[in-house]
Amino acid sequence: MMLYHRSKKLPLSAFSSIFSNVKIKNKFHNPFISESTRFYSVEPEEIPSGFIAGLKWKFEKHETVPFTNRTRFILPTISFERNRGQEEFEEIKKGFEGRTLDSTHPDCVRVSTIVDKIIDALNKEVKKMRPAEEITFLRRIWLRLIRRSPPSTAHLDGLNWEVLVVRYPDVACDCYPGGKFVMSNAFFEHFGNDFEIATCITHEIAHIVAQHGAERFTKTLSIMALQSLLNQSVITYFIKAFQERITRRHEMEADYIGLLLMASAGYDPRMVPKVYEKMGKFDEAKSVPTSATHPSGAKRAKALAQPKIMEEALIIYKNVKAGFVV
Predict the structure, then answer these.
(1) Domain coverage including residue 295
(2) Residue 5 has what pLDDT?
(3) Ranges for the Peptidase M48 domain (predicted)?
(4) Active site residue 204
């Protein structure tokens, strides 16, 4: 999500709202590296296989975020994510029936062209992240123990990217699992140049890359498991506070991933912090309540402008401009 409040973006619920200190070591500074048979009736010889199956399931659900290498537990399957994303996208189209720009409209063509450019860069980056050969289960365990697990990218395979520009008075854009991107035409009135549009798009796509919606869903389920033990009002407050905290961290992570995607797509990353500063001032002028879910524009700009972070993005950018494979 960008800096504007999510409920102000579109008059329909967003997919990632359903799924509503990390540290890693890296070559560069990285701010994100942080009615069934009862058990006692099971035959003894069946226990080892059940244990292994459970262990395998746990490791398969323990995934690594591309670009940041942060690890987390993800419950929803890829198909579940995509189905929910498609359902939300269809609701958006239905809700804006008669208020969408034709795919041949200049604004829609413009956004689609930028999205294609960014997705092309993303696909190249994902290809470089993948191991040359299939990793066995035992090796996967070892890599997990030494914190060297390869990034989880299967959810990015075979996406059918679609772009929808809607007539809506508020500045808004969103991206749904399965490769569905929505932007309001009001966005062009305030953030009209291609660079600003690309900054917004890469940030939203970064949420999909990092599976932030599925992660929030998983964490929220964990909290809700305590519901029977705590007062309803207490658990409701706790869930809200927890989700806001997680969302703020996800916004910062999406900013970072988006910065690297901008560089990989050939956009000068040094200009990105200025866009976040502008977005922050825009939200302040519009009195958009984002403090609960979003860091301030100034804080986000400062985080991205840190020398070690910008150095990483600049190396990618300069190599892309020089025609090198980075």
Answers:
(1) 6-20+64-322
(2) 39
(3) 155-306
(4) yes
Residue found by looking up tokens 């940041």 in the block: 68
Are the CB atoms for 208 and 122 separated by under 8 Å?
no
Burial of 182 from C-beta contacts in 10 A (0-12 / 13-18 / 19+): buried
Using an 8 Å Cβ cutoff, are 168 and 96 in contact? yes
- Number of domains the chain contains: 1
- Structure-block tokens of residue 255: 């900013």
Burial 214-233 (b: 16+ CB within 10 A, else e): bbbbbbbeeeeeeeeeeeee
Listed in sequence order, the DSSP H helices in 37-77 are 47-61
Residues in the chain: 326
Residue type, 226: L
Q: Which of 63, 81, 125, 204 is catalytic?
A: 204
- Within-domain flag for 30: no
Burial of 117 (C-beta count, 10 Å sphere; 0-12/13-18/19+): middle
Is 217 a member of any domain?
A: yes
Over the stretch 94-125, which tens digit does the pLDDT of each residue have? 999 999 999 999 999 999 999 999 999 999 99
211 in a structural domain: yes
- C-alpha angle 222-228-229 in degrees, rounded to nearest 5: 90
Q: Are strands 62-64 and 71-73 parallel, antiparallel or unpaired?
A: antiparallel
Is 51 inside any structural domain? no
Task: Give the closest residue to 62 by CA, choosing from 209, 54, 318, 107.
Answer: 54
Residue 61 CB partners (closer than 8 Å, separation 6+)? 73, 74, 75
User: Which residues are bridge partners to 100 per DSSP?
Assistant: 166
DSSP string, 130-166: S-SSPPPHHHHHHHHHTT-PPP--GGGTT---EEEEE
Give the Cβ contact number of residue 237 at 10 Å: 12
Q: Which helix (H) or strand (E) holds 126?
A: helix 106-129
pTM for this entry? 0.78
